[in-house]
Design goal:
Family: Belongs to the FdhD family.
Subcellular location: Cytoplasm
Largest sheet: 6 strands, mixed
Keywords: Cytoplasm, Molybdenum cofactor biosynthesis, Transferase
CATH class of one domain: Alpha Beta
CATH superfamily of one domain: Cytidine Deaminase, domain 2
Strand order of the largest sheet: 9-8-10-11-12-13
Order of helices and strands: EEEEHEEHEHHHEEHEHEHEE
GO biological process, one term: Mo-molybdopterin cofactor biosynthetic process
Radius of gyration: 19 Å
Distance between the termini: 43 Å
Helix content: 10-25%
Protein name: Sulfur carrier protein FdhD
Strand content: 25-35%
């Protein structure tokens, strides 16, 4: 597996002086995901939990419905320079009854670390029908439990603490107990890693859980929560208008501007008690 951080020399400049010093940076590298040997997408990510990332991506794009749809996931031998193994190319083998995706029809599969929704063929292409929609999930969570989640996430963001350069995503139960935390240079990748962990653990759909993201609540992150059957999505920063629309249509509870004891609940407020 590649490195998560790297060290560089920088010139630290203040009004009084300039001092050379070492700095720790988060690593950003491309990951090519192949399905049945055919390249599907390239995403810029922080190495680590790549198998989870690939599986979470396939689930949230509607290409698989569960772990049984995957036979194996492995790094590609001979894909690197001079025929060496590379940790930047993953091949996912699907079960025989799962259709191979037609990338020419649905999406230009190039995903940047800043915006995974860039490259969608059209807005309609991302309005996928989830087999695990959260609309009927009866889960409720106390407002004070939600309010405590950002601090719990921040304490577990080890690479962010060293670099200041990574997004975080965490899955909690409705009592506020953390189930998994993942970090990545791309916010959508961090969420895919969390959902990929749940897929590996045979926990899809993710009923009775809360997904917390360290930044804003975009349409794409909302879509990923819906596709995984997560009933509550909470974000530290603002939501987008499309995120609110999708949450309302899907029966997802969307919480944003989660700061201290204050929060805004944009849809399904009945779950916040």
């Amino acid at each position: 597996m590649g490195r998560v951080t790297t060290r560089v020399r920088v010139q630290h400049v203040t009004a009084d002086q300039a001092v050379a010093r070492p700095e720790t940076l988060a690593v950003e590298e491309p990951l090519e995901i192949r399905v049945n040997g055919t390249p599907l997408t390239v995403t810029m990510r922080t190495p680590g939990s790549d198998v989870e990332l690939a599986q979470g991506f396939l689930l949230t794009e509607g290409l698989i419905a569960g772990r049984a749809d995957i036979v194996c996931v492995q790094y590609c031998s001979g894909a690197g320079p001079d025929g060496l193994n590379t940790y930047n190319v993953l091949d996912v083998t699907l079960a025989g009854d799962v259709p191979t995706p037609d990338v020419d029809v649905t999406r230009n599969f190039y995903t940047t670390s800043s915006c995974g929704v860039c490259g969608k063929a059209s807005l309609d292409a991302v309005r996928l029908s989830s087999k695990h929609g959260p609309g009927d999930d009866p889960a409720t969570v106390a407002a004070e439990t939600i309010a405590a989640l950002p601090d719990k996430l921040r304490r577990r963001q080890k690479v962010f603490a060293a670099t200041g350069g990574l997004h975080g995503a965490a899955l909690f139960d409705t009592d506020g107990e953390p189930l998994v935390v993942r970090e990545d240079i791309g916010r959508h990748n961090a969420v895919d890693k969390v959902i990929g962990w749940a897929l590996e653990s045979d926990r899809i759909p993710l009923a009775g859980t809360v997904l917390l993201v360290s930044g804003r609540a975009s349409f794409e992150l909302t879509q990923k929560a819906v596709m995984a059957g997560i009933p509550v999505l909470a974000a530290v920063s603002a939501p987008s208008s499309l995120a609110v629309d999708l949450a309302s249509q899907s029966g997802l509870t969307l919480v944003a501007f989660l700061r201290g004891e204050s929060m805004n609940v944009y849809s399904r407020p009945d779950r916040i008690v």
